[in-house]
From TrEMBL:
Keywords, alphabetical: TPR repeat
SMART domains assigned to the protein according to its UniProt record, in alphabetical order: TPR (SM00028)
Name of the protein in its database record: Peptide transporter
Entries under PANTHER family matching the protein: PROTEIN O-MANNOSYL-TRANSFERASE TMTC1, PTHR44809
TPR-type repeats, residues: 180-213
């Protein structure tokens, strides 16, 4: 309850104070919000505002007492500390959030909701080990806690402890056999662990319980595609467009699935930018099939790959995503092209090479290359994650290695290593391993058209799973991909080659994080490779 209410406070005045306090909270003026609502009493709205204002002002103990009282009154609802955390995150009050959550947990150590919130907060800060400790304690106190157990399992899986994650989810299913979330998370983790048959079983369970959930359908699609079941996988992948905000243009104008004899003569088709650079480089293989059927194709692609896309024969127009889209009869996101052509002979798209470097640039970049004789090997050791996207950052950590781990490649006689790495991982070149000589042309690279020209001057590319693999593969150049254990769906399970790029060889980790054996195998492959 708030403080002593001034005499004569009528409902209009009370309402105005509450509105003013809310405006102060939204603008981060926590002391002013507190001053406005502290005199009000017997009003739950005022208590909620006051609890948030106290937390934002650093009065964590008092804020915790109020949050606990509010939570006690609504034991089955989400904990009011959740709204407090959301508000204070907008104002970057991280210390205040943590202090209030810790104080609230100390006062009510059996409230499972608080373990979820503190665990989520620590994960947002990248403090994974601390988050796991908090979530483990929550599960110890409440062994059947559904949300806590799922959050812990997903976190354990992301840190490479898939076996513990699977065991925990199976344990939860003994308490909650009808939990679609648990079946879906177990299916996802089994897919990551390349146990696709078991994963598909749990996907089926999840979809039976929640048949209209686009996220479950999307993960189901990833498992089907990883298993090589494209006829089922590509239509299922279309469920991603039902996630709010994913389909930006009218559904009735989405390009339908084509038949072998479909005629698109004169039809204006807009192919929309979607996903990462690697994805779009792979999906560009499907564009020639539309052109061949008479379509007038406009490609919307990032500037980074715009010149490469413009070189595809028959494409009418190429625009970047910042430009207004032209008039069109049909639209199609890049990721829907395999579904569009899935019932035709173009199900795998055009043969490689379906992208081509600028021949003038190829000649110009020759001057930057190490001199012959010798095997020119382009190297990439790190991926590029999207800032603020936790899942992308987790994948980047697993697919990337350190430059120092490539040191064995430098011991091969007659081999020239050429850097193709950009972004944050390129900073590791300030501390190149002893004995490694790394030619670095990347300071003068402006886009992937330049990178393509460099690759055409190389004999082979060695890379972790990045867009460079797709670029080199689409250019028809030999590639060795050093792949993480929990590989992406497009490389399938148990394969050392690729249906997408005939000159690609995959060397995969035998267990999560095990790069040494991968590099040793790559070294042997390069040592025995024919010299030009």
């Amino acid at each position: 309850m708030s403080g002593t209410e001034p005499a004569g406070t009528d409902e209009a005045t009370r309402t105005e104070r509450l509105r003013g306090a809310m405006r102060c909270l939204e603008s981060g003026q926590f002391a002013q919000a507190r001053a406005l609502v502290e005199p009000l009493c017997d009003d739950r709205r005022a208590d909620v505002i006051l609890a948030h204002a106290l937390a934002g002002s650093g009065r964590s103990t008092r804020a915790a007492r109020m949050l606990c009282r509010l939570a006690h009154d609504n034991p089955t609802a989400r904990h009011p500390a959740q709204d407090m955390m959301t508000l204070l995150l907008r104002h970057s009050r991280l210390e205040e959030i943590e202090a209030t959550l810790q104080a609230t947990l100390r006062q009510t150590p059996n409230d499972i909701r608080l373990y979820d919130q503190l665990g989520e907060f620590l994960l947002l800060q990248g403090r994974t080990d601390e988050a796991i400790e908090v979530l483990i304690e929550g599960c110890r106190r409440h062994p059947s806690a559904l949300r806590t157990g799922n959050l812990l399992a997903v976190t354990q899986n992301e840190t490479g402890d898939a076996q513990k994650a699977q065991a925990l989810l199976r344990h939860l299913l003994t308490y909650h056999p009808q939990s679609a979330m648990t079946h879906a998370n177990l299916a996802h983790i089994l897919t990551v662990d390349n146990r696709v048959d078991e994963a598909l079983h749990h996907h089926a369970q999840a979809l039976e319980l929640r048949p209209d959930d686009p996220h479950i359908h999307l993960n189901h699609a990833m498992t089907l595609l990883k298993a090589g079941r494209h006829a089922q996988g590509w239509p299922e992948y279309e469920w991603r467009l039902r996630i709010p905000g994913r389909l930006k243009y009218p559904a009735e104008r989405l390009l339908p699935t084509l038949k072998q004899d479909s005629d698109l003569s004169g039809q204006r088709i807009l192919i929309l930018s979607e996903a990462g650079l690697g994805d779009m480089l792979m999906y560009l293989r499907f564009v020639p099939a539309l052109v061949r059927r008479g379509a007038r194709v406009t490609l919307q692609v990032p500037r980074e790959i715009l010149p490469l896309a413009a070189r595809i024969y028959g494409v009418e127009r190429v625009i970047d995503p910042l430009r207004p889209v032209p008039a069109h009869d049909w639209h199609c996101p890049f990721g829907s092209l395999p579904r569009v052509l899935g019932q035709t002979s173009d199900i795998i798209g055009a043969p490689v090479p379906y992208l081509h470097a600028d021949p003038h640039k190829v000649l110009a970049w020759e001057d930057y290359m190490p001199s012959r004789p010798g095997l020119r090997v382009g190297v990439v050791w790190g991926g590029a994650s999207r800032p603020g996207v936790a899942q992308a950052q987790a994948i980047d950590r697993k697919r990337s290695m350190n430059l120092a781990q490539l040191a064995p490649l430098a011991t091969i006689p007659g081999l020239h290593l050429v850097n193709l790495q950009r972004g944050q991982h390129a900073r590791q070149m300030t501390d190149i391993p002893d004995g490694m000589q790394l030619y670095d042309p990347m300071d003068d690279v402006h886009d992937m058209d330049d990178t393509a020209a460099i690759i055409m001057n190389l004999d082979i590319v060695v890379s972790v799973d990045t867009s460079i693999v797709h670029l080199a593969g689409a250019l028809g150049r030999p590639v060795i991909m050093m792949d993480r254990y929990d590989n992406c769906w497009r490389w399938q399970s148990g394969r050392g080659d690729s249906q997408w790029y005939p000159d690609l060889r995959i060397v995969r980790q035998p267990r999560p994080g095990a790069w040494d054996g991968v590099v040793a195998r790559v070294r042997d492959m390069l040592a025995s490779a024919p010299r030009p």
